[in-house]
Fold:
Amino acid sequence: MLIRSVTRSRPIWLPPLLVIMVMMAAVSYVGGHVSRTPGGLGLILVLTGAIALLFRRRHPVPVTVVTVLTGAALPLTAPHLVLVDVATVVALYTLATLRERRVARTAGVFAAVALTAAIIPWQRGGLLDLANLVPANYVAIAVAAGEATRNRRALLAEVRVSAVREERVRIARDLHDVVAHHIALVNAQAGVAHHLMAAHPDRAREALAGIRDTSRTALDELRATVGLLRQEGDPPQGLRPAPAFAALDDLIEGFRKADFTVRLSRTGVPAPLAGAADLAAYRIVQESLTNANKHGIGRRADLTLEYTPAGLRITVTNPAHPARRGAGTGHGLIGMRERAEAAGGTLTAGMDSGVHTVRADLPLLPR
Structure:
């Protein structure tokens, strides 16, 4: 936690600390079998490469060139061998994390050639000495590590974008289900109240009471949905706009109060639905009946629930005319299909011989 906090905040003392660490790592040289400390010119080169690292994030390419040149010039100040040029390693790693692969690899080749050429004259075995491979090795490791870090960051960013996109789709789907269903019921109930106002005021008042109850329910669900946007992590159960499939009778009763007839039939032994299938079943029935109310003819629909060992089959049929289509975006059908697939089921919808059918198959909890 502390390391993550320090990395994110980038305190003012961190860059000077990096310079000091690079200088300490670079002052030990090996000449033959004797360790030496660089003289004045060598210290100037080490200090130049270390200070250049202060600008490595803003100007990664120029800083890499400077560190490579100072690292290549160090062996010329005395007959010694620099085993690892720390400043070049840091610069190449940073460059690989900030620039595309082509730039990083080109810089790596340049660094490997320059540093290798600088140490060859001081090797006992000359051109064929295996120690000549040391610069190329640590250069390759620095570039590879930088590319791995950049790829990991890109992957995490992609995952975050994907998660945000999925969450936006889920919230849009919930808002569509809540608003479309309840507004359609309010509209139907208002039409009933207007029609009965003069001849049957008592029934008209019942329709107005239905509008009040429906609008209150819509506000509660909208409040719960919007409340999810303000929650971090998994929200408490009380804030989830997720009516259970057990509330199906209340849903159907709301349609009947809006003067829309729903004929319900059940077959098989009822069983609990698996996970997300419970909410999916409720929303599929809700959206199917809402569409039948808006686009169908005859103001009626048939709902069949078939429980089998394989799962629950929901079938909603209503008389409709192919040429009759109300205003809509088609998001309702898309949302139903997405809900069914997310719950591990399937959904189909279509028109045949003047009857529109929505059929969904959803899994049950294992017994």
Observations:
- The two ends are 44 Å apart (CA to CA).
